[in-house]
């Protein structure tokens, strides 16, 4: 079972007549050389949803840059927003077309202080899912993972 952020973030704008925002960012690093090494594929994601139907359900804008086995890829779909730094999308380096710093600026333009814990108030929680994983998966505590990754 994977985390599914897209479903509620895309569904609720239609019910509440508002916008929904899905964001994600992770640095690209890992120790793939070790048998028990951890590989974290980097990505940056922004998906903006609204109450009206669009060419893809109710998604207004989707931006993503991600790394996988085949390398870095970039995707931009939907209506370009006023805050976008479109000149970056043609950068020779695919991973630089949409960075974590850009994501933070884009969120700020939408009124969200992405990396400011005070913005979210005192009722903020981090959720950790534990349990069965797929065969071959490495399972460890957060403390173990932090000790093995450059966090």
Q: What does this protein look like?
A:
With 151 residues, this protein is an alpha+beta fold. It has one domain. 21% of the residues lie in helices and 24% in strands. It has four helices and six strands, in the order H-E-E-E-E-E-E-H-H-H. The chain has helices at residues 6-16, 100-109, 117-120, 142-148, and strands at 20-26, 29-30, 39-40, 43-49, 59-68, 71-78. The strands form two sheets. Strands 1-4-5-6 form a four-stranded antiparallel sheet, with helices on one face. A hairpin with a 2-residue loop joins strand 5 (59-68) and strand 6 (71-78). The longest helix has 11 residues, at 6-16. It starts with 5 loop residues before the first helix and ends with a helix. The relative contact order is 0.14. The mean pLDDT is 83.
Topology:
Elements: H1 6-16, E1 20-26, E2 29-30, E3 39-40, E4 43-49, E5 59-68, E6 71-78, H2 100-109, H3 117-120, H4 142-148
Antiparallel strand pairs: 1-4, 2-3, 4-5, 5-6
